[in-house]
Amino acid sequence: MVKWVVDVVKWVTNMWGKIPWEVQEFLKWLFDKHLAEVIMLGGGLPTLWLIRRKIIDAVNRFRDGRNLRKRLPDYTPQQIERGTRYYIWPDCQDVDPAQSDEARHTVAVRHDLCSTMDQRLTQDTVHKHYIILADTGMGKTSFLLNYFARHLRRWRKPFAMELVPLSVPGLKDRLKKIPSPENTVLLLDAFDEDPEAVENHTKRLNDIMQWTRELYFYRVVITCRTQFFPRDEEIPVETGIMKVGPREAGEGPQFTFYKLYLSPFSDQQVQAYLKRRFSFWRKSRRRQVRAIVDKAPNLAVRPMLLSHVDDLINSGKSFENCYQIYTEMVDAWLERERVFVKAKEALYQFSCKLAVKFFVNRVEGKSERVHYDAIESLAERFGIKLATWQLTGRSLLNRDAEGNYKFAHRSIMEFLFVQQLLNNDQDALQIPALYWTEQVIPFLNESVCGKSPWRFPLPLRFVIIFVPFKGGVFQLGGTGKTVEVKPFALSKYQVTNSEYEEFDSSHREKRNKYSDQDDQPVVNVSWEDAERYCQWLSKKTGENYRLPMEAEWEFAASGGGKRHYPWGNEEPSPKYANYQKLNIGKTTPVGSYPLGMTPEGLFDMAGNVWEWCADWYDEKQKYHVVRGGSFLDDYLHNLRCAARNWGVPLVRDDDTGFRVVRGTWS
Fold it and tell me: How many Å apart are CA 528 and CA 535, to the nearest integer?
């Protein structure tokens, strides 16, 4: 029996190897993506209908891939596969979405691009030339690939169609070889990638129009990046092709280009894409991707970036916040431009420097835009040796109607500015936090997550690791007193060994087995040591730093008395904090328990080390208050926000450290 099974497996394996790879890919796709759906939905007519639809979809996809690979040798199989798989037809509009800071909210009437093109190509006699414009990654090439594949599937074709990428040489000779041009719709892909258009887009477009006129093409459709043209006036309007015969009143003597802009994906289109890419039985993966999309919705409107989301999951990396997603997305965006800008790092550095420049403009009351004519001089000032067309047409920028360039979305500018802050760029560090935009601090906080704050530049460190509180009135636990807390800012983390040793280098010799790493909380410091650290820090930075008042500490930990524990009301467990039950026997690096973080963003408010407070514990003023519990605590009561304890001011313990408040006394 076993031998028979082995023989069958060998036979199937051998037969599989003889099947053409295109058929293999088709069968893999059909069974991997859709067989489970059929099984789970059960029998009956709905199942038969689903089977019919899935088979038709699978056959169309297989046929489209085969036809495109056969008819379009200039496109790689990978380009065709990525551009046609899971495709969602986009919308179009007659208003450039780049004119709005939020592309999704551009006020414009949207139409289905596929049906719009069908109508224009079959019925419109006024326009014979069309230009489809969009920002980078919006799916211009994918639309042409799918529209061409759809045309090839049609039984009755109202006209012939040819798709030619403008990045390949010998365009004129290619056009001459096309049969029956008078009955052919010519799709010309990516005018912005045409090397001759880069040199002189006006001359190149005139040449192309001249050739299409001489050959009498029925219709011509060109795609291009909007920002390829320095200003709206340079987007071609007149084709240079004269009309023959009588004209209507007011009609011009030349054929003109009809402009269409690709619309950003709507929420419904994003959802449709996810459903198509992740079938019924892969709902868990769909939820994973949806979670990433929800963290970066402004980037998900671009199909190129949306299609990259699944790659983020397949990379095996963990994406816990928006900062990590933007890091991957921007890198993917720039990697896409490597074909045209070999020095990817130079393009990235230009974008980062420009982001800082825009923040400097905010301080000076200027715009977050730069005119096309100033791009080259800025690049020279930044020491970036790239051509202007690379800095505008291939960058993370798009432009408005007047030729001013801005980032495709403000969040990209904020992300790049944060990168410069973290890289200790002095121009960025000179900009007061007052002039930061709303997304800068969240990006900074997310960049710190999982890292010790001492790794960041000192001027920045004490901006990003503090959580502000508005204050309020609440009942101080353990005392029964109602107290008023004024606004304050408490450090996100306990002070680490490395931070403290910038003040007292001799402490390094006092490290012990309980806290011997740079990013573990400092211990073996007395209340007076902590006070002296705050005085040193205030003098060094020019701001006021101090130990927290007991009421401030509890207000921050409990959310103004709303929680029993920093994370909520659930009883302590090893996922929330470092205490004796874990049997670690030492401190852990600050920020090691993200699930135990307060909703406001404070780490280790329970466990790890006790924390000195400024208040006296007793009326005789012999002891100071400590709060929060430690890694040595076996009493869960000590992990409660309201739990109080005391320490002798001059004594240094293995499980006692501190965190600081920024600001004057309440």
Answer: 11
